[in-house]
């Protein structure tokens, strides 16, 4: 099934307020001086390139859509999740990240099913593949031992999404650390799904700089460009390896997609040692939050000066570093707040201020156990 078409919807107003939605400025409006000095302001309709794709400078992640264990998903949330999708698309966001493993228990694959449903039921313009770019990740399950099985996984995702072709097909993680013989099979699976036209671009997730160079070289030898590398990247995840990965991406022309740009919520200012989230996150928050006073204070100070929220400042930092952040959304309020991260830029001094505070934090976010060197 091809992506449907529908009627356009206008942008909302007041781009710079806390959590307000966005209005496209008149084409005749002069560029602000800050934009000329610092580069694009990156409104959502000012797309960036991910390989052959044109995507909004921020996308949205859908890890929570179907995950009961970590994010408390219930099917009663689906109507608001549809509103989240509609609001994002109407305001220029066209990149939505998911995975074939998203969803717990019987709800495995629920994130993809919901995205497909929301695309079909969206009352707005979907005229070309670039209007909605779905990036999904394929798990390196131990029973996926042939490239054909990996291609079949892609076909299953397309069936759940009910679309003809993915925007980006991604390896969810590398098996180099524990099953190196499986790795080449997975790479060949990417080559096959690209050759068969099942994906418009290919990418990886949780690859470190050394392994990224290897897969980039292998794919290039097969005539397949590597378009993206998705990794945990935020003010809490900016260690030497993450910054080296960013440099490697820049040198190869690979776009870095930043998941968990808000540190699972630690950078929102919503939580402290006496107010922790429910579920497994509380254990991690209890370990890390007490050492983040300096960073959270810095985020709060800059947010106050700029009339922004702490979340918006943290996401804007990722954008200023050249990454495409994909914060997760569960509510309309999340979408509204995240949209306020666009249309402006932190100054160089503010970026330095934030990074100094982050480096001074005694504890950092734990890296994904699947990330390779």
From TrEMBL:
One of its GO terms (cellular component) is cytoplasm. GO terms for molecular function: oxidoreductase activity. Residues 1-28 are annotated as: Disordered. InterPro entries: AKR, Aldo-Keto_reductase, Aldo/ket_reductase_CS, NAD(P)_OxRdtase_dom_sf, NADP_OxRdtase_dom. It holds the Pfam family Aldo_ket_red. CDD domains: AKR_AtPLR-like (cd19093). PROSITE patterns: ALDOKETO_REDUCTASE_2. Residues 57-357 form the NADP-dependent oxidoreductase domain. Keywords: NADP, Oxidoreductase. Belongs to the aldo/keto reductase family. This is NADP-dependent oxidoreductase domain-containing protein. The gene is LOC100831456.
């Amino acid at each position: 099934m091809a992506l449907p078409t529908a009627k356009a919807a206008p942008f909302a107003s007041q781009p710079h307020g806390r959590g307000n939605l966005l209005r496209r400025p008149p084409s005749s409006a002069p560029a602000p001086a800050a934009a000329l000095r610092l580069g694009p302001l990156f409104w959502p309709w000012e797309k960036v390139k991910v390989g052959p794709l044109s995507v909004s400078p921020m996308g949205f992640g859908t890890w929570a859509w179907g995950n009961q264990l970590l994010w408390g998903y219930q099917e009663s949330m689906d109507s608001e999740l549809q509103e989240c999708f509609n609001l994002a698309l109407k305001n220029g966001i066209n990149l939505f990240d998911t995975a074939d493993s998203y969803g717990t228990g019987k709800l495995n694959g629920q994130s993809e099913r919901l995205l497909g449903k929301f695309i079909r039921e969206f009352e707005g313009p979907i005229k070309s593949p670039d209007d909605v770019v779905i990036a999904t990740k394929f798990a390196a399950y131990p029973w996926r031992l042939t490239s054909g099985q990996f291609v079949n996984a892609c076909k299953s995702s397309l069936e759940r999404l009910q679309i003809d072709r993915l925007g980006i097909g991604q390896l969810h993680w590398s098996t180099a650390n524990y099953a190196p013989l499986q790795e080449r099979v997975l790479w060949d699976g990417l080559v096959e799904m690209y050759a068969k036209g099942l994906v418009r671009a290919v990418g990886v997730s949780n690859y470190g700089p050394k392994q990224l160079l290897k897969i980039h070289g292998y794919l290039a030898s097969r005539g397949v460009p590597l378009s993206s590398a998705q990794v945990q990247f935020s003010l809490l995840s900016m260690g030497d390896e993450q910054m080296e990965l960013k440099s490697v991406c820049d040198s190869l022309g690979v776009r870095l997609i930043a998941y968990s740009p808000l540190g699972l919520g630690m950078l929102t200012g919503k939580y402290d040692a006496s107010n922790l989230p429910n579920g497994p996150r509380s254990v991690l928050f209890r370990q890390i939050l007490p050492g983040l006073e300096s960073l959270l204070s810095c985020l709060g100070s800059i947010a106050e000066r700029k009339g922004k929220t702490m979340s918006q400042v943290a996401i804007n930092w990722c954008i200023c570093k050249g990454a495409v952040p994909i914060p997760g959304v569960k509510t309309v309020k999340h979408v509204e707040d995240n949209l306020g991260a666009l249309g402006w830029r932190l100054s160089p001094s503010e970026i330095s201020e934030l990074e100094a505070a982050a480096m001074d934090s005694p504890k950092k976010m734990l890296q994904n156990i699947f990330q390779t060197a």
